[in-house]
Amino acid sequence: MKIILFYCLLIVSVFVYTPPTAAQDKFENSSLVIVKAPNLTGDQYGQLSSAIAPDNRYSVEYICLQSGIIVLRYYHNFSAKGDVGMAIKTALRRHGKLTSLEVIYVDISRESSVQC
Description:
- The protein is an alpha+beta fold.
- It is 36% helix and 28% strand.
- The protein is built from three helices and four strands, in the order αβαββαβ.
């Protein structure tokens, strides 16, 4: 009887315990980042938005294909604007296959990473 009870408790504890995931990360800062991507195409934007959609660190706030402007909200733990700019450029180059990028504006604000 004790063995059955032990195994029942073991099974319940396995189902109750959920390891932390990336979606539960807490970020200290949030940045509004404006990027100029000349010759941005609809295909590149589609590729970029589908690649960063599952990542809870990025959200596309605004995009203008004609001017090549992308406005992103980026949740992070950086304190320097240069670090934020480099992280954004790296992500956009990797996910959207964008080559010529210019970070126009970075605003770092200290806020909770809890998102609705």
